[in-house]
Amino acid sequence: MSYPDPRAQRSAFTAHPPHPAHAHGPQSFSYGPDAPTVITPAAPPVPGGYGQRSAMPMPMPMPMPMAQAAGAIGVSPAVRIIAALIATTGALTVLAAFLPWVSGFVTVTGVGNSEVGDTDGVITVVLGGIALAAGTVSALLGRRSALHLIAGIGALLLGAVTVLIAAADISSVGDLSALGITVGIGLWLTLLAGIVMSLAGVAAIVKRT
Questions:
Q1: CATH of the domain at 195
Q2: Mean of per-residue pLDDT scores for the chain
Q3: Is residue 77 domain-resident?
Q4: Are 109 and 97 contacting, i.e. CB atoms less than 8 angstroms apart?
Q5: Calpha distance 24→8 (Å, rounded)
Q6: Which of 88, 206, 77, 191 is nearest to 153 (CA)?
Q7: Who contacts 130 (Cβ-Cβ below 8 Å, separation ≥6)?
């Protein structure tokens, strides 16, 4: 009885290794830990894409009428300061009319008294009152307006008339200096207020905006 040679069987197994019935080719085997799974984050959605609402453009503001736009523009602080100066000089002119214009053995105010008929102070009270009102309105008006120019022209004219009245009365009182009569503080204040009022009027005309 003969037995098959084991070496011949080993050679045949090596030359033709068996394959599983379900395999269609050689399989590779790896040893070691499994490779980690990398998860890629999804990209953010693009605005305005398909199925998304795109941003609506903002409506353009309606243009403002020219007259309304011009009236809404404010004035510089210098205009208000000059207007306040006009109002201040007007108030000083009114105050000066009730102060002594003539001093000496007799004291006479600008509005006069029962013994003296010189009442030039009444005129300066009116002039100062107008300047006070015009300067106050211009100072409180916070936008561009023709009233700033009107206040400047008015202050220039009112101040000039006030200076002429004060200068004439100072000259008249000076002629009586031999009698011990001097110019009172009210007349000097009237002259000073008139000069400053005229200068403020010029500044208001130049700097009316």
A1: 1.20.140.150
A2: 77
A3: no
A4: yes
A5: 27
A6: 206
A7: 90, 154, 158
